[in-house]
Amino acid sequence: MSCIIPAGIDAVAIFGSAARRDYDALSDLDLLVVAEQPAVVNRACDSLDKLGWSCTPYTWGRLRKCISAGSLFAIHLRKEALIIRDKSHHLKDVLRACKHRSEGYRAEYREACSLIQGLEAIPVDGPGLAWVLDMLTVGFRSAAIARLADAGVYVFSFEEILAHMCRFGFLTYRDARRLRNLRWFKAAYRVGLRTKIPTFDEVRRFIDVTSACFNIGLHVRPFADGEAFDRILGNREGSSDWYQRTRRAELAVQGLLPIGKDSEEFFAAKRAILKILRKPTQYGWFMKAQWPLIHEKIVELQSYSVM
Known about the structure:
The protein has 15 helices and eight strands. By secondary structure, the protein is of the alpha/beta class. The chain folds into three domains: 2-96, Beta Polymerase, domain 2 (2-Layer Sandwich), CATH 3.30.460.10; 106-222; 227-306. Helix 2 links the parallel strand 2 and strand 3. Helix 6 (106-117) runs antiparallel to helix 7 (126-150), helix 7 (126-150) packs across helix 10 and helix 14 packs antiparallel against helix 15. The longest helix has 25 residues, at 126-150. It is globular, with a radius of gyration of 20 Å.
């Protein structure tokens, strides 16, 4: 492993299922990559992504801030990280300083529930429903991790999350068996597999189970015509929730088809936008800085398309 780490990187750690050794065909290969300069760490992640790793880039400044805040991601790293490179043992020392947050994780729980609440209106087509299931998986996992953390349980594998949610009575075993399928749908969506997408009613049942689990009270309905676009075009400056805003932009763009414009040029522009929107490391600072430009490109693409 160490032989493929690009130069200039101070610390690298495997985390998630690969570190826990419960990796399967649906798992990502999660890798923390740390360096002092953002440009260095981002170039390294681009190289490692091409080798099949799912990289999470951090500068030391951002990682220290994450640790000092007692974030759930920091606890995840402290509990599971398998360190591959660590110059001067700096990463080990930083992770050792991570403490559970005394005031709990209600803010993270509310944020995750907000992500689920955003699925009250959903598309009716196959690709759009695949996106919904991906979003639901992220929302359920994040909300469940935060809820369990408030109960003093810190687990991060999907199977352990489901098991503990049942033990605490937040979820029935029957519903847990249903939600277990979400991992497959998420993995299929992210590799572009479009087979076996559930129907609108089946997806609604997944949402209903999740909504009941967290007492959200959703009443799912189909999108009105153009609603996906209306939700992003009416907000040029974006919002503080960059993950949700970016994912909604992804949904809107992936549904566009060309009209009155060279199709090859149109799809090249569409692919370029989706590449930015689908890169997980872009959800924070990059999207905030670049949103006006990205928004402009999306509007231009939409003007040559039919939804």
